[in-house]
Amino acid sequence: MNCGSGPAPATMVRCRQCSASVAAPPGARAVQCAQCCCVTRVGGAGRQLSVMRPIPNFGGGRGKKRAVLVGIKYTNTRACELRGPINDVKCMRYLLTERFGFANDCVLILTDEERDPCRQPTKANIRMAMHWLVQGCSSGDSLVFQFSGAL
């Protein structure tokens, strides 16, 4: 006799990029479409909150070394524009790839100078990048997160 202790059924979500049906496991906040790789956030009762296109090479880095580098200089905001964050990110990428052997596709950079909206340091993009950073990691992996900007 089953008293409801079995696994909860998956919720079906429609991808807004290609309109394919994607199964969202119970408690999932986002799902990735297997057809177009678009990431769709999942809300209560299967409703879609927003859609983010995948960052190019976002899933490419599956090595033992991965990094997320964020540089925000606050261009076109009421805050004073900073001069160094973009340079900090470029220097860190050079250090990681040349000195510590990180592969180029394992270093994800988010800056406010990027034209691609998926590479800009928004809250949603930073959260997705952090998820990518820790996804599938195991003991002995090298993970780097750098933030350069004002708090």
From TrEMBL:
InterPro entries: Metacaspase, Pept_C14_caspase. This is Peptidase C14 caspase domain-containing protein. Belongs to the peptidase C14B family. Residues 64-149 form the Peptidase C14 caspase domain. Signal peptide: none annotated. One of its GO terms (molecular function) is cysteine-type endopeptidase activity. GO terms for cellular component: cytoplasm. GO terms for biological process: proteolysis. Transmembrane segments: none annotated. It comes from the Eukaryota. Pfam families: Peptidase_C14. It comes from Triticum turgidum subsp. durum. PANTHER family: METACASPASE-4, PEPTIDASE C14 CASPASE DOMAIN-CONTAINING PROTEIN.
